[in-house]
Structure formats: structure tokens, C-alpha cells
Amino acid sequence: MSTARPARVVPQLPVLLVLLVIAGGVAWLQFGDGTGDGGVNNAMSYGAAILSLAIYVLWFLLGSHQRVGVRVTGLLVGLALVGGAFFLVRVEGWSGSMIPYLRWAWEPERESRLPTAATIPGAGEPSIDLVTTGPLDFPGFLGPDRSAAVRGVTLERDWDAQPPQLEWTVACGSGWSGFAVVNGVAITHEQRRGQQVVVARAVADGAELWRYASPGMYQLQLAGDGPRATPFVHAGRVYAHDALGRLTCLDGRDGSLVWEHDLRAMYGMGKELEEKLVQFGRSPSPIVHDGRVLIAAGGDPDGKQAGLVAFDAETGELAWEGPPRQLSHASPNVVEIAGRTQVVVTNEDTVSGHDPSDGTLLWEHPWDGTTSASANNSQPTLVGNDRILVSKGYGQGSKLLRITADESGAFTAEELWANRRALRTKFTNPVVHEGHAYALSDGILSCVDLATGDRVWRDGRYGHGQVLLAGAGAAAVLLVLSEEGELLMVEPSPSAENSVLGRVQALEGRTWNTIALYGDRVVVRNAEEAACWRLAVVER
Question: How far apart are CA 111 and CA 100, in angstroms?
Fold first, then answer.
């Protein structure tokens, strides 16, 4: 009489031990030494979760003691749930911490709500006047001096007594461009139905005044679609840089084209090479100084390349090209440092200062980065008259550099301190106020002592949003626009840890776009809508 041999069963204990090891690795990623990037950690955690599920499923199917019918039923139910999720839900995008934004599959694409992207010139009426400027103007990226600070406006601090008032809200196209606001006209850059579109709106009511459309789309689910750079307004003209490397100069009266350059073509970056080296889209915002438009160009590492390039603001003629460097996602700025006017810019893996008259390199300091991976997004920030603060996410933190010149005029960049835990500004920029820097560090509001680099406090989980300082001295406040579109007023003080003075839901949806403050108006947007809020100001 023969006896059937029992089926081999893979012991459950080794499987559980493997899963515990994986879970421990995930816990270390999330709660370890605090120097890693939250988004990268989450992505690795997702991978670990998928691996754990795969191990468990294989054990359930091949090594457990369950009957064949139970195993087959479990497999079919699991496949049905996964398949149903794919049919019912779509991933609309990802947060800066790699959390997916989900929508029902049958919801219409947001761009279907927008008017056609065809260019519509304005009437050229005197009311559309970008030549006349005033002290309240916010002419481009991060404000009047590209420092994420507006010193000439003092806001009321009691939002309970004087709450923000919504003036208007409108649907807009995809993109992470902010607003430039000059003489009552707000200008941004969007993507609509296959085109990159510069749009001018009236601050008073949000009405569209003109738009200029150029062909081409930028699409990447991980980074979001559309333009990234904020237009710059100067002497009646609008200078815009789209995600595909097209630099345009428009007449501010009606949005008509004056001149344009294709930076990708000028510097040998074909579509495939561009997607490899600058895969998150071109983000540098232009700036005008001394009659020239300055922009980061980059290019083919084995061919023509220019870290900075300057064009005549009137004619578009090439004025000069800086030394060969690959561009980052940061923008150039013009500052007075160490007794000399300089163009400072964060490149792919360095930060440098240049002579604005011809682009000559004055100094340079290493600042690790890869534009297609651990990208440098944040601006070099002026601290005092001889220091530059650099910061970034991806676990790198921040450094303070001192720029000095010797008797011969040669410049040197000296590192004063570095802190991997401080000011990990992934998509945002720090602001400087009374010896301290404030920023969203890996999504959490932080205060850092600029003398030492030490973190004073870190509190308030607002995600990868934006910050803007309004006012000066003891009357200054910090405006925080969270990644979920909430606008907050916070006390900028080393002794007041995340002291929230007021809050309002300004927008709905993922918001990486910068804030524009125009007098008593805050003009904000994301990839779905734009809004204008009126804030109470202190009368003088």
C-alpha cells in the first residue's frame, strides 16, 4: 500500500523575516538620519512595497498550504482589483514628495475647459501700458530684485478681523510659471491644447487682454506639463522662455512678436539630447539688465555650450556668450556683491559670478547637481554685501559662500559653512530676514541662523510650495503658498516657531508656482486655475 507524499510547504517564518527586513529598510528611509530626499525615499518605499507584495504573492501561490482553489481565487480577485483600479483611476501627476494625484478616469482633461490657444492680439489701447511702471510693480520671477521679498508693502497681520477677499478666479492652462505684474497687468505662461501661450490678464477682474501662442508641448507626468519660467516685463516688452527653450520678446501692448530665439537649436540640443540632459523642461526665467536679456542656455556637452547668454533687448541680436556650462533649473540674477555688479547663476554643478558687460567668469564654486536628476532649482541668494547662500533639495542642503576680491581685482569664493540638514529647497527658494533664512525645507517650514548655518526651528508641513517676504523690519510677514494651494501668513522670527497669523485656501490642486504680490493684491496660480486675493494693508 503506497502513501502519497505530502506537498512541500515553504515555511512561513523565512518569508516573514524577509518582509521584516524590507519594512525596516523602509522605516530607515522615512525616519533615518534626515539627510535624504523625501521624494526619493518615498519612491524607494514604493519599490519596497511592490517587492514585498510580490514575495508574499509568490509564497501564497507556490509555498503556502492553502488549497489550489483558494490560491487561484485569491489570484483572480487580486488581478481584478488591480485591473479595476487602472480602468477607474488615472494618475494626474505627482507631488514634490512623490505622492500621486489621482482622478477618476472619466473626468475630462483640464485643458478642454480652456479657449483655443490661437494667438489673439490685444487692441493696443493705452490702457494696456507696460511702459509706465511704479513702486508696487512685480516685474518678474521672485519680485523686483529676484529675492522673493517685497519690502514696500506692509500687510495687516490680523486676518480674523480683516480676512483676505477673493477678487477673481479663472481656469488656466498647465505649467509652473508664476505671474509678473506691472501697471495693473498680470502676465504668465501656460500650455493650452498643444501650444505654449503667454497670457496677459487685467489684475482688476482677471479678464484676458491678449495672448501669444507658439507651437509645441512639454509633457512629463512626473514633473507636470507646460512652461516653467516666469515672464519678465521691461520697458513695455515681455520676455518669456518656454519649456522647449524658445526665448520670445513680445510687445506688451498687444502681445505681438518682436523677436525670438530657439536656444535648443542655437546650442545643438536636439529633442533626444534635450530629454536626456534637461528632462524636467527648461525653467530659467529671463532678466533684463543694462539693455540686455540674460538667460541660461546650456547646450551639447560635446558641441556648443554657454552657461549664460545675453541678447540685445531691443533687437534680439546676440551680445555675448559666457563660458560653456550646462544649465540648471535656476535663473540668473544681477546683484551688487564684493563691490561689483555681477550676474550670479546656479549652473548644473557649480554656482558662478560673471561680468554683466561681456559674461566673463569672475568666480566659481562647486555645487553638485545633475539637471536631469538631482537638479539645482533654487536661486543663489544675496546675504549682506559679500555673501551668497545656495540651497537645494535631494538631500544636499545649503552652503554660505563669501565672495572677496584681492588688490588685483581677482575674486575668490570661500565656503563659510555647509549643512545638509538645513534649507533643502527642492522647488522653492529661501528668503533672508534679519540674519536668518526662511524656507520650505523638504516641505517643512524652517528657520536657519545665517551666521552659523544651524537650524533654529523646523515646523509646519506645507509641502513643496513657495514663500515670499512682505514688508520690512518688525512689520515683515512671510507669505507661504502650500503645495495644496493654501495661503498662510507666518511670523518670520527665530523665536516664533511656525507662528501662523492667518490662512485661506487660495487655490485647489497641486501648486508649485511662485507668489506675486502687487500692492494689496496676491496673484497666484497653479496648473489648473489662477486667482487674485486682496489683502488688507497698513495705511501710511
Answer: 20
